[in-house]
Amino acid sequence: MSNFIVFDLEWNQGETPATLDGKTLTFEIVEIGAVKLNENREKIGEFSRLIKPQVFKEMHKITGKLIHLSMEDLENGGSFQDVARDFLEWCGPEPKFCSWGPLDLREFQSNLDFFGLPLLADRPIAFYDAQKMYSLAYDDGRTRKALSTAVEELKLDSDIPFHRALADAAYTAEIFKTFDERVLKRISFDTYVTPKSKKQEIRIVFDNYEKYISREFDTKEDVLENMEIMSTKCYICHKNLRRKIKWFSPNGKHYYAVAYCDKHGFMKAKVRIKKAENGRLFVVKTCKFISPEDMEDMKNKQRKVKKRQNPQ
Questions:
Q1: Contact present, 249 and 255 (Cβ < 8 Å)
Q2: Which residues does the UniProt record annotate as the domain Exonuclease (predicted)?
């Protein structure tokens, strides 16, 4: 049985990103901390290692104030390659990763890639974004709060300083234990590795919306001409829907439309065009049913966009 790996990274950066053999490194990981939970979310282990920098050998002024580590501290750390291998071996087979926010898993994969180690998968990875889940469980579902704020709001013991990897992983694990099954179903996907074929695409229906992560495309025109991406189909009854608000974009990256289903009402579709690590494009599309009031708000948003794009 696979375990939950609640982990946190600390990283350093330079004044500019580093490049090597066509790979770019913006943040170099200097510490990995993790707590292992079994299927009942009971703690069964922990991992904590420092990493000696190989790229950014001076501590960035902002990083130094934040993470309570100096270059002298890191001199006794292992290489990223060795620590990463040890960490993944410690995780065990098919780990279910959890972190506070979406960045840690992405930066871990970025460092694996830069230092020539195998990536975690050949497609997007499902993981638990505890920061998002905290908002779903205790807030409005949209706000993203700092880990320290969540710990304070839940009145958890906070006698260990924040911004060290194991401490932050431990705090995140305690918060993760409080989530009910409804919240645990709201998984996220890391897209450092994007789908390369139709078979690898992600399509998942949550309790109140659908998410679709597409394969890669060469150009924005290819995306906008793709019928599957730009169609509006009810994700409950699977009927093709007539659009009440045609596709429009305020910025050329995000596209919106609203369609109507006789059974389920108004459905808002949103398409976000994103750049993959290799420079190609992919899409994250979400569909969600909205109220008539929200429909009117979308009409107003469309009118404002048209007015701005076509001033009289």
A1: yes
A2: 3-185
For residues 59 and 65, the answer to whether their CB atoms sit within 8 Å is no
Domain with CATH 3.30.530 in the chain: 196-309
Distance CA 255, CA 258 (A): 11
Delimit the CATH 3.30.420.10 region(s) of the chain.
Answer: 4-184
pLDDT score for 312: 65
Q: Does residue 80 sit in helix, strand or coil?
A: helix
Task: Give me the mean pLDDT over the 49-73 stretch.
Answer: 89
CATH classification code of 4-184: 3.30.420.10
Identify the CA nearest to 243 among candidates 229, 226, 230: 230
| pLDDT, tens only, 111-137 | 999 999 999 999 999 999 999 999 999
Beta-carbon count within 10 A of 195 CB: 19
Q: Locate tokens 């979310």: which residue?
A: 41
Closest CA to 178 of 239, 142, 128: 128
Domain boundaries 196-309, CATH class: alpha beta
DSSP 3-state assignment of 90? helix
The answer to pTM > 0.90 is yes
